[in-house]
């Protein structure tokens, strides 16, 4: 085991005599440790010695110290969310991000954030997760830039929900839906205000009417 093993369930602000400040952490962990009972069954009860009882005033002080409600720009990528208690605590933090404008959640094995609302979020990066549908994304009414590269989105069903948002840029690279016939035309027909798709600006051929393929298959007999 590494020397840091006994500290793996502690938050950075719980470790005594540290010199790291919160604003120096680029991807801070937001998880809580398992219960004492779960530690016992894991045979990791030695970590209990490092954990202390926290009073209500200390809990409130810690909540204020995190100050997620006033966070405007946040990177919570690469959280390694392997256990259920980690996922639940992660979502608890996301629900507190009522003022966040830029949010990165890259490579977190996320599957469903539909219960999360980010009312001020303008830029969201959820690359390298496990989303299979646009319906599984959080509520982001003010979104302008959305990156969904390297997920598992198979169809464009639900993409029209973003029609009434100020979405300007969308990245869907390396998703199965990218291989759908007339992929770019379908995206732009559902999102008429979209300007950039997969890093490429809107082209004249992207504005073809939905039924254009019908005319391509017609022949005229004179």
From TrEMBL:
<keyword id="KW-0433">Leucine-rich repeat</keyword>
<keyword id="KW-0677">Repeat</keyword>
<dbReference type="InterPro" id="IPR032675">
    <property type="entry name" value="LRR_dom_sf"/>
</dbReference>
<protein>
    <submittedName>
        <fullName>TILB protein</fullName>
    </submittedName>
</protein>
<dbReference type="InterPro" id="IPR001611">
    <property type="entry name" value="Leu-rich_rpt"/>
</dbReference>
């Amino acid at each position: 085991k590494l020397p840091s093993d006994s500290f793996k369930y502690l938050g950075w602000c719980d470790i005594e005599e540290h010199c790291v400040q919160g604003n120096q952490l680029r991807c801070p962990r937001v998880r809580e440790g398992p219960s004492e009972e779960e530690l016992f069954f894991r045979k990791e009860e030695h970590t209990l010695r490092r954990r202390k009882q926290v009073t209500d005033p200390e809990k409130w002080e810690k909540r204020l110290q995190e100050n997620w409600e006033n966070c405007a720009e946040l990177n919570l990528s690469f959280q390694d969310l392997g256990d259920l208690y980690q996922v639940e605590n992660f979502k608890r933090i996301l629900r507190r991000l009522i003022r966040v404008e830029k949010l990165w959640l890259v490579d977190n094995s996320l599957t469903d954030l539909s219960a999360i609302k980010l009312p001020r979020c303008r830029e969201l990066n959820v690359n390298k997760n496990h989303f299979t549908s646009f319906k599984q994304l959080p509520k982001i009414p003010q979104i302008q830039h959305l990156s969904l590269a390297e997920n598992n989105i198979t169809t464009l069903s639900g993409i029209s929900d973003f029609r009434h948002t100020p979405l300007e840029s969308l990245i869907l690279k390396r998703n199965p839906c990218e291989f759908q016939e007339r992929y770019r035309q379908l995206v732009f027909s559902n999102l008429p205000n979209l300007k950039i798709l997969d890093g490429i600006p809107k082209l004249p051929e992207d504005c073809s009417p939905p039924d254009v393929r019908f005319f391509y298959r017609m022949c005229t007999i004179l």
